[in-house]
Amino acid sequence: MVFGEILQAAYQLMTDVFGNYVIQKFFEFGSADQKLALATRIRGHVLPLALQMYGCRVIQKALESISSDQQVISDIVRELDGHVLKCVKDQNGNHVVQKCIECVQPQALQFIIDAFQGQVFVLSTHPYGCRVIQRILEHCTQEQTLPILEELHQHSEQLGQKYQGVSLEMTPKTYYTVSSDALFKDQYGNYVIQHVLEHGRPEDKSKIVAEVNVVEKCVIHSSRAERALLIDEVCCQKDGPHSALYTMMKDQYANYVVQRMIDMAEPAQRKIIMHKIRPHIATLRKYTYGKHILAKLEKYYMKSGADLGPIGGPTNGLM
């Protein structure tokens, strides 16, 4: 009885400050027939609903709740074709695009990937676009993420060329570093970089690691609060041989970032870094660049006293 009355005013309720919650609850707890009946009321109105403060919530709930019926989902998603960038840059619409990527089969989302062609760098530095790029890296196929990653790299190289001739002292490596600086230091682009490190191919990760001298500059020249966040980002990753800190310590470039973090960290944060490094001491001795970290650690161990215990371990080689 309740549903019968609601269905008659479904679209009006979807865009209402209070009514949208009732529609969402029917998508969440209603029968399969009720969910499909409400979905039919969305059809033909997906774009205006996606851009509306309350309607965007209804579409997101619908995508979550009727995901088992891929045909219905495809019909809803298809209405965004031709309007992807408009939605991605909208404070409401971007959430709908993200939910599409999370809930819909990647094969039905190729039009979203196509819409990003030539726009990847701009969207990566956009407050809403960077979120959508992250969802693509998380959920789409390798074939779909490849052009996204390639465009990020290509754009960096093109930007680098702009700086040629600015100074005779600038080397080719400097050009690339200057261009990459935009994404590393951008308040939104840095999240995309983090997702590339997490979800990209080995070659994508290597390109970023090769540019971490930019991060080293960030550690040196950032404010105390910003520096603390950067260090915390590294230290809060999972521990073990696959942790970000461990990978950086034995890398020919990234070890310098860790050294700068040790140098620039506040005492309490430096102590955390030292505790994180200690389990890897035996392994780091085997790496040329790991030894640099151990030397830095020894320096601060001598300054801070014995509260961490001897970092070199017993003379018998046991930890």
List the helices and strands and how they pair.
Layout: H1 2-8, H2 10-14, H3 19-29, H4 32-42, H5 46-50, H6 55-65, H7 70-78, H8 84-88, H9 93-103, H10 110-115, H11 120-124, H12 129-139, H13 142-162, H14 172-185, H15 189-199, H16 202-209, H17 213-221, H18 224-235, H19 244-249, H20 254-264, H21 267-277, H22 281-284, H23 288-304
Helix pairs in contact: 3-6, 6-9, 9-12, 12-15, 13-14, 14-15, 14-17, 17-18, 17-20, 18-21, 20-23
Domain PUM-HD: 1-301
Protein name: PUM-HD domain-containing protein
Pumilio repeats: 5-40, 41-78, 79-114, 115-150, 175-210, 233-275
What does this structure look like?
- This protein has 319 residues and is mainly α.
- 69% of the residues lie in helices and 0% in strands.
- The chain contains 23 helices and no strands.
- The longest helix is centred in the middle third of the chain and has 21 residues, at 142-162.
- It is elongated, with a radius of gyration of 25 Å.
- It starts with a helix and ends in a 15-residue tail after the last helix.
- Mean pLDDT is 79; it is low at 157-180 and 306-319.
